[in-house]
Amino acid sequence: MTKFDEATQAIRVDETTYDVCLDPGYSIGGPLNGGYLMAVILRAAVDASAHAHPVTTSAHFLRAARPGPARVHLEQVKTGRTATVTRATLVQDDRPFIDTFVTTATLTGAAPDWTDGPSAAMPPVEQCVKLPDPKPESNMTLNAQVEVLFDPPTIGWLGGEPTGRPEGRAYFRMAEPQDPDPYVLALAVDALPPVVFSAGARGWAPTVDLTWHLRALPAPGWLTVLGSGRLIGDGWFDEDVEVWDSAGRLVAQSRQLARVGRG
């Protein structure tokens, strides 16, 4: 069991309840990363399902969860031969923090019938760069759990030179050696800085809702994460992410709506 497996572990209490312990190692300046929290919820939903893979997840983030004990409550909405739909709610102190609908199915790993290519080109891994290590007082502990190498123009905002477009591109893998799986993909779709940073905004940008799809089981190796946005306005922005594996297959897609950062 890797550190990430342990940090996302869900222990069955009964057929509708799982105990979890939210790990402080996945903080983004205080709040826990939304992708990490989805991975925790998905552990419970998949364990309780007859199907092996979370093919689509729609999460509404009601409030910021904190490290420590929590529970995942499950309600099976539909059970079928090819898919199961489950409502899964992350609860702390008897209050709901994330409300999700998860559809599980079983993917075969078959080659796609049709696919297009990535929405943007990436330079080779050796030409990409890390973000500077955060200061300890920043409580950005997520950085130590993952290895992310960015396409340099997309982090120009660090030096006061944003591209002016909502975008983000990087190679991604866990810091501890681990082949990517659906739970790592749940983290990957929400692991980059908000694309609105590249458009010139700064500050914590809380996600309101995020939907992501597991399109294929990923091959070992680096993941390529490509993020973009279509509209920034009235204090809101959208973010689309696609994740490609080392074999050149589209393995995950997501869209989220978030508040423009403040501070």
From TrEMBL:
Annotated Acyl-CoA thioesterase-like N-terminal HotDog domain residues: 25-106
Acyl-CoA thioesterase-like C-terminal domain boundaries: 126-260
Designated name of the protein: Thioesterase family protein
Alphabetized PANTHER family for the sequence: CHROMOSOME 23, WHOLE GENOME SHOTGUN SEQUENCE (PTHR38110), THIOESTERASE DOMAIN-CONTAINING PROTEIN (PTHR38110:SF1)
